[in-house]
Amino acid sequence: MRRRVAIIGGGPTGLYAAEILSSRGFNTTLFEATRFPGHKFLAAGAGGLNLTNSEPLESFAARYNSPSLPPGVWRNWLAKHSPDDLRRWAEELGSPTMAKRNGRVYLRERKSSRLLRAWLERLASQGVTIKTRHRLTGLCPSRPFRLEFETQPVDSADAVLMACGGGSWPQTGSDARWTGLLRPLGIPIRNFEAANCGWEIDWPDGVRSLAGQPLKNVRVTAGAHSLAGELMITGYGLEGGALYALGPILRAMDQPALTIDLKPAHPVSRLVEKMESARKNWASEAAERWRLGPAARALLESRSWQGAMDVARGAKAFHLTLRGPRPLREAISSAGGVCGTALNDRLMVNGMPGLFMAGEMIDWEAPTGGYLLQGCFTSAAIAADGVEDWISTLSGS
Ligand SMILES: Cc1cc2nc3c(=O)[nH]c(=O)nc-3n(C[C@H](O)[C@H](O)[C@H](O)COP(=O)(O)OP(=O)(O)OC[C@H]3O[C@@H](n4cnc5c(N)ncnc54)[C@H](O)[C@@H]3O)c2cc1C
Fold first, then answer.
1. Domain housing 292
2. Is residue 149 domain-shared with residue 212, that is, in the same domain?
């Protein structure tokens, strides 16, 4: 008799786990709460799917912030299922990838719809049953597992792999309602928070009116952490990759604040030199002489300065107090989820043999740049291996 595996959640994590387990001969059924799988995967591809990153494995693994997982675990997982494996997988499905100069790896065709279609065809050909409109609402961790759904009849499985996603973009199905199902089972879950999200700032009108304008080639510092990148002025505050990557630091601050270096390639002395002969209108003179874009100019013009040295120092360390992050529902991803302490290194829940977790529903976070999807695919592969090994220990397998 073929062992029955239930995958809960039809995002990239669940689909990938279903692909691996069905290819290894398991009777695999995927249950998805909404009308179709891969909703967030399609949303992620809307502006070009950044599937993974080409940076070396050591520094790649360091991108994952997961305090409740054992140190070094991402390095081991990524070595078993690497960014190159993921690129090969996409290529085999007819969607080759390309690496940009900044390391980000995109699908050549940019959108993810064709890849998702080919993927679902592969799953069908491997015999995966996908049951949509099946929201798991109850789980009895006996053997076999009893699965209860919102409106559908109960089902059962020898092993269950949950891949229900995080808490951002709930319109895609990732609404984190599954936390109400797992908490009563005693599984520790850290509340979700917005990650890779915009932050709110009380802009003066002159800056707010420049919503949509970038701050290019800046260096952004929060606490002891600093990185180069780009920001975008919005009506409510700021967005941008450099800000997203500093999210964990900002969330840990009592009063979140940033310092922006608007001219990172120039020391203060060089900026002051360029101000020679200026006698007043320090911000607008500086904007002209230092060739600042409209957003950087508006920032400088929003404050008063007492001379060339003052404005140069201000441009090198423009301080901003942040009101707080944008709401979780708008964030690209979420921090929080099932605590790593509840899982073993194969992603099986401690004390609940046969129940596995993977993807964004686990308490880890990573910046944008392809690390999120890679984390989902890699953890899916690790959990799928775990399911296979665990089932092989059952009598009669
Ligand atoms: C706008 C946007 C752009 C993004 N772009 C990128 C990018 O370019 N690169 C990148 O690396 N990452 C990107 N991401 C992040 C990436 O899409 C997510 O990290 C990834 O989709 C998470 O995969 P997952 O399978 O773990 O969860 P999800 O994709 O969230 O899927 C979870 C699934 O589980 C289902 N589900 C939930 N509860 C239940 C239940 N009780 N029963 C049954 N089913 C359930 C949900 O309906 C959903 O379909 C982006 C995200 C957003 C919002």
1. 199-325
2. no
With residues binned 3-state (H G I as helix, E B as strand, rest as coil), the percentages for the chain, rounded to 5, are 35, 25, 40
Tens-digit pLDDT profile for residues 370-383: 999 999 999 999 99
CB of 83 shorter than 6 A to ligand 1: no
Which residues of the chain have a pLDDT value below 70?
396-397
Same domain, 239 and 380: no
* Amino acid letter, residue 222: A
Tell which of 306, 325, 344 closes a domain: 325
Q: Which of 372, 378, 382 to mutate to test the pocket of ligand 1 (most atoms within 8 A of CB)?
A: 372
Structural domains of the chain, count: 2
Q: Is residue 98 part of a domain?
A: yes
Ligand 1 atom closest to the Cα of residue 48 is: 8
- Cβ atoms 42, 145 nearer than 8 A: no
Q: What is the chain's length?
A: 397
Q: What pLDDT score does 4 carry?
A: 97
Are 352 and 304 members of one domain? no
Among protein residues, the one with the nearest Cα to ligand 1's atom 30 is 165
Q: Which residues pair with 159 in a beta bridge?
A: 5
Task: List 334's β-bridge partners, or say none.
Answer: 194
Same domain, 73 and 186: yes
CATH number at residue 29: 3.50.50.60
Tell me the whole-structure pTM to 2 decimals.
Answer: 0.95
Q: Which amino acid is at 345?
A: D
Same domain, 32 and 150: yes
Contact between 335 and 195 (Cβ < 8 Å): yes
Residue 183 sits in the same domain as residue 216: no
| CA of 175 relative to ligand 1 center, distance in Å | 10
Helices (H), the chain: 12-23, 39-44, 57-61, 73-80, 83-92, 113-125, 179-182, 205-208, 241-245, 247-252, 268-274, 282-289, 294-301, 308-316, 371-392
Q: Are 334 and 167 in contact (CB under 8 A)?
A: yes
Residue 67 domain-assigned (yes or no): yes
Residues 318, 305: contact at Cβ < 8 Å?
no
Q: Which helix (H) or strand (E) holds 184?
A: none
Residue 172 has a CB neighbour count (10 Å cut-off) of 17
